[in-house]
Write a structure and sequence with these properties.
Aspartate Aminotransferase, domain 2; five-stranded mixed beta sheet; three-stranded antiparallel beta sheet; 16 strands; about 35% helix
Amino acid sequence: MKFPSEPFKIKVVEPIRRTTHEERDRLLREAGYNLFHVPAQSVYVDLLTDSGTSAMSDDQWAGLMLGDESYAGSKNYYHLEETVRSIFGYKHVIPTHQGRMAENLLFSTIVKSGMCIPNNIHVDTTRANVEHQGAQALDVVIKEAYDPHCELPFKGNMDLVRLEEAINRVGRNRIPLVMLTITNNSGGGQPVSMDNIRQTRALLNRYRIPLFFDACRFAENCFFVKERELGYASKSILDIARELFSYGDGCIMSAKKDGLVNIGGFLSLNNDQWAQGFPTYGGLAGRDLEAMARGLHEVLDEDYLSFRVGQVRYLGELLDQAGVPILKPIGGHAVYLNAKEFLPHIQQAQFPAQALVAALYREYGIRGVEIGTVMFGKLDSATGRTIHPELEMVRLAIPRRVYTNMQITYVAESIIELYRWRERIHGLALTYEAPVLRHFTARFKELEEKPLVQQAAS
């Protein structure tokens, strides 16, 4: 076999409702061609995100029954604290309802207007939380990250030369911390090597700047280190994780990814002053804290990770073999379609990735998400023109332990078929946008109101 079969069996099933082409076309128009507005019950295979969409294990479900709903000092908090300390190694553990709240806690505490936060590439909510404080969210990933054809094994690495240049240009006192996102979601789910993390730590030591991780996909990053980096093949995922986090001063975590839960996250750090407060509540039920603690153990299982990364790789390889342009190498949690090459007849100002997302849903009932001009385009205040991101992608994020390989095959066959009809996909124009995080609520119209040829998959 090209990859391991499922290391689990199915105990509970959820029916999926099939829709017609006509219904999907209507829903798409009503949603303003924004898939965030389409009801989930009208989606056949939902690859919008891998955040909070995991299937929990029987052990996690059993843990829910042990929820201690005490307002203060819940036993589930102490279990979570013990688990986080054993993996991540940091002194303080502050639970939150999700990762973006952990970001907000950290940045609202230490980031002031005029400061700068370097990262390999900020994800959308991290960027928004930094900019909300009046600071600059600076991307300092290696240049190869922007080449979709480059198959460098660690394309999420920090560019150390550019990082040091930024420190000297901005000034050490205006950089309260540096972040590394593992894996690098906005750059294609690409991992960061242990050597790069070690060198980043050494550089920051010279300037006395703390290093924090966005750790929401830390286990997948550790799996790639074990698979690709010299000297780690015989080490356990837990040992790799412990070494990785030993180079940092703290982390933010959306446990809705590698915590294998539907809600929850945390901020963990060593700084006593930054961590002052009342941590044992966190706005989460005790049952959710327990499920998170158990999920953080489960995600370290190498059989699970081998299947998880293998299933994503399976989808990517099916598409690549058929000539569908994707970002390489294939990442840990998602396959990224290269919308510029998929739809070369649509200029970037007409949102080719968003057009591709809309077409994929209308024709096949598959929901992905745009990672391109809608999400990361910026207006140049001097010229009034849009500054387009270098990468224009559609992310197909695979939920953990949710879809079978047959459903993943359906996704691949659908995209391959759509690629043959790609010249019939039309660009979009914005009709509404919010000033911040516009991709969640933006609305569009098709530039030519002509639907694609209806497919047999209807």
